[in-house]
Amino acid sequence: MKNILRFFKVAKLGLLLVLVLLFTSCNKPLPDAVPISYPSANSSATTTIYGLINSDTTYSFFKAAATKVGMLAQLNDSLNSVFTVFLPNNNAFRASGISSIAVVNALPAQTLGGIVGYAIIPGRQFLEADIPASTNTVPNMQLPTSLKIGTLPGTPIDLKLTAFSSNSATGFYDNNIPVVKPDLKMKNGVIHLVAEVVVPPSQVLKDAIYNNSNLSYFKAAIARADSGQTGLNRFDSLLAYPVTNMTVLVPDNAAFQTLLFGTIYGGLLQQGLQPAQAVPMATQLSSTPDVFSNPALFSSIPAAMVRAILAYHFLATDQGQGFQPNIRVFSNNFSSTPAFYKTLINSDTSTLAHSHPGIEVQATFTGPFVSGLQFTGLGTFPPGGAPYSGAPAKAEIVAQNPFYDNIAVNGVYYVIDKVLLPQ
């Protein structure tokens, strides 16, 4: 596994040299709307968005939620406001596990305010045709919602929680949720009916990942890889930075245990131990995340090697400032045809690392829904196999959710069942 270090000079990683230039990142937000007097968004329409929701009982769940949090009346203004609403009907609520109005009313106001506010894009009507159609739907169009999450550090500029819209051959999406009926034109904007409730994220990547007990090895690996690093050159700091877009592949505990057992076992054999001695020792040492902080194993698992492996699990693009972890890729953005995505390995300036082909990704679609997602690394373990010949890592479905995307304020992460190796 130390072959990983052959081409990757970790000191040159430079995780996010221009992260403060948030609004030039790959997923670009739109400027906040300036209040103006709007003509009717659709002159032939006979009712407002409020009028439809208020009168059509197929939207009674959303009506109950919006009424409880006081956000419904704004959708009746056709003189001073215009909206795009990604609207879940009652069936979409049921598909999301919310079975009745009684369940809606039992939810906390904060939860309902998040659901309703995240569905509403104020200030502009976005028809399906306004969302660029492409076979490669990254970057998504970033749409500021009604939810304010603070201000841009050092400025009075409001930060809005953004939704991400894409349009491709597989469908029209809000985040990773398919739009089942687009372009319902109202007097004060447009409604797009969505297949399920689009739930806003509530945590940054660091909190979401670190609070998952099945990802404790990844957390420990981050601490090991960050040894001697400072600021945003630390993976830990990067995962906590709220105003960016990232895609992170996170191997689960079993994936790390498999790799670590093999690495430690091989090292013990090289030290002269017999297999009968090496197997139980390697099993014991790899059975806890503390393996990364065990000084006796620092020579077998050096921080630089761990850092290189983790860098291979952050997708990256070059926007003219070198490769940065600046792209949020939902499962539906990946292609059904195998395609390669660059990673932070490419941020190194050595020729071999800079030209690294990246990770091969393939999605399987059933209708507009992603029903399978796999990632294949260049390296194999034990080493010696042909590039990309190892079994692909498969993404794990989010608990109680038919999707693979774990969505956070500052990105999306996928839990995978294998550690990917860059060499």
Total strand segments: 16
How many H/I helices?
12
C-alpha termini separation = 8 Å
- What is the helix/strand order? HHEHHHEEEEEEHHHEHHHEEEHEEEEE
What's the CATH class of the largest domain, please? Answer: Mainly Beta
> Biggest sheet, open or closed, and with what strands and sense?
7 strands, mixed
Task: Compose a concise summary of this entry.
Helices cover 24% and strands 22% of the residues. The chain contains twelve helices and 16 strands.
Folded structure, characterized:
The chain is an alpha+beta fold. The protein is built from 12 helices and 16 strands. It has helices at 49-55, 60-68, 90-95, 101-106, 109-119, 205-210, 216-225, 235-240, 253-270, 275-285, 303-311, 351-354; strands at 83-88, 120-122, 141-151, 158-168, 171-174, 177-186, 189-194, 246-251, 317-318, 323-324, 339-341, 359-366, 369-376, 393-394, 406-408, 411-416. A 7-stranded mixed beta sheet has the order 2-1-7-6-5-4-3. A hairpin with a 2-residue loop joins strand 15 (406-408) and strand 16 (411-416). Helix 2 crosses helix 5, helix 7 (216-225) crosses helix 11 (303-311) and helix 9 runs antiparallel to helix 10.
Task: Considering the chains and any ligands shown, give keywords for the structure.
single chain, about 425 residues, alpha+beta, FAS1 domain, seven-stranded mixed sheet, four-stranded antiparallel sheet
